[in-house]
Structure formats: structure tokens, C-alpha cells
Amino acid sequence: MQNQGQGIAPVRVKDLLSAAAPLGRVLVRGWVRTVRDHKDFAFVEVNDGSCLKNLQVVADAPSAAYDTAAALSTGAAVEVAGDMVASPGKGQDWELRAETVVLVGACPENYPLQKKRHSDEFLRSIAHLRPRTNKYGALFRIRSAMAMAIHQFLGERGFLWVHTPIITSSDCEGAGELFEVRAGSRGEDFFGKPAYLTVSGQLAVEMFCLSLGNVYTFGPAFRAEDSNTSRHAAEFWMVEPEIAFGDLAQDMDLAEALVRHLAETVLTDLAEDLSVFTRFVDKTLEATLATVAREPFARISYTEAVDILSRAMAKFQFPVEWGRDLQSEHERFLTEVHFKKPVIVHDWPLSIKPFYMRVNDDEKTVAAMDVLVPRVGEIVGGSQREERLGVLLSRMESLGMNPEDYGWYVDSRRFGSVPHAGFGLGFERLLMLVTGVTNIRDVVPYPRTPGSIEF
After folding, report:
1. pLDDT at 228
2. Does a cis peptide bond (omega within 30 degrees of 0) precede residue 62?
3. How do strand 298-301 and strand 420-426 relate by DSSP bridges?
4. How far is 324 from 351, CA to CA, in rounded Å?
5. Which among 140, 305, 342, 428 is least surrounded, fewest beta carbons within 10 Å?
6. Looking at the domain assignment, is residue 181 inside a domain?
7. CB within 8 Å of 66: residues ≥ 6 apart
8. pLDDT tens, position by position, 232-266
9. Rounded to the nearest 5 degrees, what angle is found at the Cα of 11, between the Cα atoms of 8 and 13?
10. Does residue 71 sit in the same domain as residue 152?
11. Which whole number is the average pLDDT over 403-429?
12. Total structural domains in the chain?
């Protein structure tokens, strides 16, 4: 297609609408949201995905621009060149007076995204098109901004980003919920031993923590858990920082600071996109995020949490008993009813936590912590790592693990071991927190859940 803008570089709709004054002659490329033909002129709403608002294009008749504009349909891709001028209409400061309108990609009448509200269930069935809706365009811009904010937050604090393997031979969590990797139809192991999609980059990134200091990994993780709950997906993203020469207190401080920073970023920098969710998804969202961002988190031990839940008048589906993991209903009671804000629960029973967490002096608990937030529950899980070689070996053997399978990991405790701590932030659960969306399938571009891999 020949550029009709005569050498003008295309300008984003976001930049045009936020300008303090009209930018003169411009070129815009995007997709048609609506068309209104008034015979003497045609209005075309164009959106290029850069912001929530549409750019109003006006094509006056008689002209070739009008003829093309009036014949456009919702969903068509267009290129428009013309002058930005002050708009006499309500709702926008500027509009584009079209000199040329070029149809780049036609769209038939059976385009599934007509101008009406569609259910989330329907939009999941057309995940390849749902970013064109207001809700999902806003959501995925927020997702992008949150990822950038995480990198900026950790980078400014001296953390180095490490790319850890997606394919691994180890089970970090010890839960056995692993996707095995094989090369096509070949029966033998491609790597000479069983290989799996990673459930966490933690073990790998720890090695860099014990060499380079503070580091983090941020990437996909996979869990073959046959769960169809609204909080679980087979493929998800994790942010996993590791603090060299760090302890559990520093770990909790960093996790709280990161979550609060991200909530504040959404409130202050992403207000336009956030408005979709405060108006149409959860009218209490802004107040919830303000509490997350601006009030210190409560901190209690696991034992204190069990005591609070045991004395609560609420009826829980799952029993509350020391030594059992907390369920979502328990987490939400602590955050939404008892404390009415985020809670960090620390010092968990040794029996329900992985081998790498540092054993406390009571030998019944480990230096672990979970960050719980309203509506979502657990959003962060972390711990001080077990840096003592003898204790680590004892824990592995008690769990039936062969230390030889993790020889490289054990070496890190043999050659210059130091105290260190880290955590994993579930990126999708963070997005559920900041948007009020209640189903993890709706914060993932192409969700992967049991029995579903359509895209």
C-alpha cells in the first residue's frame, strides 16, 4: 500500500488527543469503531490501540474522502491524513478533518465485535479479537505498563535481570505438577534425561544471586495442575527477585514495597484505562487500590493467623488447623474482614513448605511468607533460603529427594554460601488485583487452562 500521507510519519491517537494544541497535518492508522453518515459529512471513530479514547475523523462531502469514509464498516483498517482542528463537539478537544481516507483492510458484516457489550465468556472464544474492545484494550495496556514498572522498580534498586531456563530437569516446588518435554514423536529423551517446563526460575536465579548480588527473573512458568478455578492457569508469569545477604524481614519489606508501588502506579499513571474497571467491573476498586498503595500491610505469623481464623465467627468450608495450608476463603477473611487491608503471613509450618526454605530455630516452622491482598488472596510467596549445607541435605533426604539430582544447587551451599531470600510475585494475580477482574483467564492474552488451548 502506498503511504497517502506524503511522507508524514504516522502519529498515535494517544499523542494526538493529549496534545496541548492541534498538531497540524497528520497521518493516522487504526481500526474503525463506528461510522455515522450524515450525507453532508461522515463521522468515523478510529482507534489504534494506544489509548481508551477514539479519534473522531470528519470527512466532508462531496469528496473522495467522504465517499470512502461513508462506506466503511466497523472493524475495517484505515489510513487517514488531514488536519487536526478544534472540535465543536462534546467529549474531545480535537478532531481530524480528513483529506484522504484509504481502506487498508476491509471488514465484512459478520465481524463479531459490533457496538454492544459482550460477555467475558464470549470474548474468551475470540481471544484473537478481544484486544479491540475497550475493556481488553485497557487491560492489556495496563499489563504492559505493569511489566515495565516492575523492571524499573527493581532496576532502580540495583537488581540485575537474569533469563532463567524455560526447560529444566528439576521440580522447584516438589509438587510433581510438571509438563514433560519431548522432541516431536521421538521416543528417547532429547536431553538424555527427563525434561520439563519450569514451574519457577527460583533455583536457577539463586545461583546468580550468590555470584552477582541482587538479581531477579521475570518470565513464564508452567504447572500441570488439573484445576479450573478462577485463580489458576497452566501457563502464567512470575516475578522472582533474590536478595543477596538478605533475610526474611528484608524479603517482606521488598515484596510490600513492590506491590504498593505497582498499585500507586495504576492509580496515578494509568487513570484513564483504570476508569474502565472502576466504572464497569468493581466500583470499590479505586478505594481498594488506595488502601494497598498507601497503608502499611499487616504482618502476622502463621500461628497468629490460625488463631484469628479459629476464633472467627465466620463459617469456613475448609477446616482451620495448625499445620494445614490456608485456603482462599481464609486469605480473604484476613484481608477483607479482619484487617481490611493486605496481610503478610510469615513463619509457616515446615511440613507444608518446599525443601529450600530456611528452618527456624523451633524446627517446626520455616522463614517463609505469603502476601495476601483483598479479593485475590495470595499474590506473593517467598522465603529466606536455607543456606546451611547440612540442614539443606537433611531436608532433601527427609522428603525423599536425591541430593545428587540437585548437585549444582547443593554446590552453592558448599562454595561460599551466604544468607539470601527471595519471593515470587504472580503477575496475573497482580493484574487481577489492579483491575478487579475476577477470572485469571481474562488477564492473559491467550489463556492456557485444562482442556483449552484454542489459540
Report:
1. 79
2. yes
3. unpaired
4. 9
5. 140
6. yes
7. 41, 42, 59, 60
8. 899 999 999 999 999 999 999 999 999 999 999 99
9. 150
10. no
11. 95
12. 2
